[in-house]
Each structure stands twice: as C-alpha cells, then as structure tokens.
C-alpha cells in the first residue's frame, strides 16, 4: 500500500503576522513535489488568514498546534476543535512533546483530544516519543508503544486510519545526542508492527508515520529513504521557506 508522504512544519511560537504571511506565500509559490502533502502548523492567531491564503493551492494545508479536549466552555485562552473546523483547518497536532512536558498533558487527556478532533473532522497528527532517560534505560520501544496504546487503541480501525503518527526522539533534540536514520527506522518499524498487531497489517501499512527529530535539508533525504519513515514533523527548519522546500523535495 502506498502511504501519503508528508512534510509538516511546526512553527511553534514564532513569526510576527507579516513574517507568517510572507512565509506562507513563499511556500504557496514555491516549486514543491506534488506527491508530498505539505502542512503548515501555524500559531493559532494566524490560522484563518493563512487558511484563506492557501485555500486553492494544491498540496498545501494548514494545521493547528493544539486543541482543547472539550467542545466549548469556560477555558480562557483555549481553542476548541469546532472552532478550528469552522475556519477550514483540517489538521491538528496532538501530544507534542512540548505540550506533554510544559503543560503536563497525559495520555488520557490526549485520548480525549484525539476523540474531539476526529468528531469535528480534524485529522490528528499524534505525537509520541521518549526522553534521554527512557532511551538509556532501554525501555524506549515499549514506552512509546504504550503512548499509542493509551491514547489511540480505543479508536475503531476506521478512526485510526485517519490518524497521522509523528515520532519525536526527544533525547535527540537540543541535547547534543544524535539520532541516526537507522534508529528512526527501528522505532517507526516497531510502531507500525504494534499497530498491525492491535488492528491489522492493512491498517498499519496505510498510516503515515513521520519523524520529528531535528529534520534539516542536510539529513532529510537519508531519513525519508528509510522504509517506514513517511516524512517529517519539522521544527526550526520549517521557519525558512528555502530550507523547508528543500526538505519537501527530499523525497
């Protein structure tokens, strides 16, 4: 089964309004591989403007970086899945390592966020990954598989087939440690096999699993060439149009 190849750029808390519009325009006008789905996860304050800007640009979509687990209510400063759907957003990042660490989002909370996203026609980009401590303990494979189990395994096969998984080796981001393409492949293969065991090989083989470990123009091609790596969730390198386009075209 041919899986979707995806280059998703997570802008995090970066870019002023003018800078954001300039970056999205540059990506819209760039020569990009038409077989690669390109996703921009922009700060929430810019979502509507950028959705409108790229509405008719083939292969270019917009994601929110987070959503709340409830439909609505007294949650000052939060953004709901129905709000995102109402402005044309199609994707939402759920469970990014920074949300897990800084905002103490548990697997149980993330399961509810996945549910609310799917209920509102949003495609979750579900993040999982382990710290340096877990990696050195040798329990990294089972630890990350458990994140899938506790946040995704309640879904039906049909629901799961809509989810994009993104593996973040937290231990290799800003630590001085380096993740090799082989280490990326090992985890991606393990997660795909875990999904196949829980659901089926057909379902697992249809799910795109992205790599989120400091993807750059210099290493994108070798990372994306790994059998079970279907693209990247890109951080800093997605903030420069030229760098991100090189990553998009690295497939």
From TrEMBL:
GO cellular component terms given for this protein = cytosol
GO BP field: gluconeogenesis; glyceraldehyde-3-phosphate biosynthetic process; glycerol catabolic process; glycolytic process
**UniProt-listed Enzyme Commission number(s):** 5.3.1.1
- Catalysed transformations (reactions): D-glyceraldehyde 3-phosphate = dihydroxyacetone phosphate
Residues at the active site: 96, 168
Tell me one Pfam family matched here: TIM
At the top of the EC hierarchy, this enzyme's class is isomerase
**Binding, substrate:** 10-12, 174, 214, 235-236
An annotated Gene Ontology molecular function = triose-phosphate isomerase activity
Q: In which pathway does it act?
A: Carbohydrate degradation; glycolysis; D-glyceraldehyde 3-phosphate from glycerone phosphate: step 1/1; Carbohydrate biosynthesis; gluconeogenesis
Q: Where in the cell is it found?
A: Cytoplasm
Give the keywords, sorted.
Answer: Cytoplasm, Gluconeogenesis, Glycolysis, Isomerase
Q: Which CDD domains match?
A: TIM (cd00311)
Q: Which Gene3D superfamilies match?
A: Aldolase class I
- Could you say which protein family the record assigns here? Belongs to the triosephosphate isomerase family.
State whether it acts alone or in a complex, and with which partners, per the record. Answer: Homodimer.
What's the stated role of this polypeptide?
Involved in the gluconeogenesis. Catalyzes stereospecifically the conversion of dihydroxyacetone phosphate (DHAP) to D-glyceraldehyde-3-phosphate (G3P).
Name under which the protein is recorded = Triosephosphate isomerase
- The gene from which this protein is expressed is tpiA
């Amino acid at each position: 089964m041919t899986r979707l190849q995806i280059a998703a750029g997570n802008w995090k808390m970066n870019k002023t309004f003018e800078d954001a519009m300039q970056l999205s325009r540059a990506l819209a006008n760039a020569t990009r591989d038409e077989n690669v789905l390109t996703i921009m996860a922009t700060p929430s304050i810019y979502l509507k403007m950028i959705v409108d800007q790229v509405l008719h640009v083939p292969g270019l979509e917009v994601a929110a970086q987070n959503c709340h687990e409830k439909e609505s209510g007294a949650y000052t400063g939060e953004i709901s899945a129905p709000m995102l759907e109402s402005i044309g957003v199609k994707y939402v990042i759920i469970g990014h390592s920074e949300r897990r660490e800084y905002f103490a989002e548990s697997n149980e909370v993330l399961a509810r966020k996945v549910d609310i996203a799917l209920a509102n026609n949003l495609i979750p980009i579900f993040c999982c990954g382990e710290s340096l401590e877990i990696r050195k303990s040798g329990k990294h494979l089972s630890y990350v598989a458990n994140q899938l189990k506790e946040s995704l395994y309640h879904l039906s096969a049909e629901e799961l087939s809509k989810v994009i998984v993104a593996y973040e080796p937290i231990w290799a981001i800003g630590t001085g440690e380096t993740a090799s393409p082989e280490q990326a492949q090992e985890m991606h293969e393990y997660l795909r096999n875990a999904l196949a065991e829980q659901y089926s090989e057909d379902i697992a083989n249809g799910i795109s699993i992205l790599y989120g470990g400091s993807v750059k123009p210099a290493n994108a091609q070798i990372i994306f060439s790994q059998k079970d790596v279907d693209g990247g969730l890109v951080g800093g390198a997605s903030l420069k149009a030229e760098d991100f386009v090189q990553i998009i075209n690295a497939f």
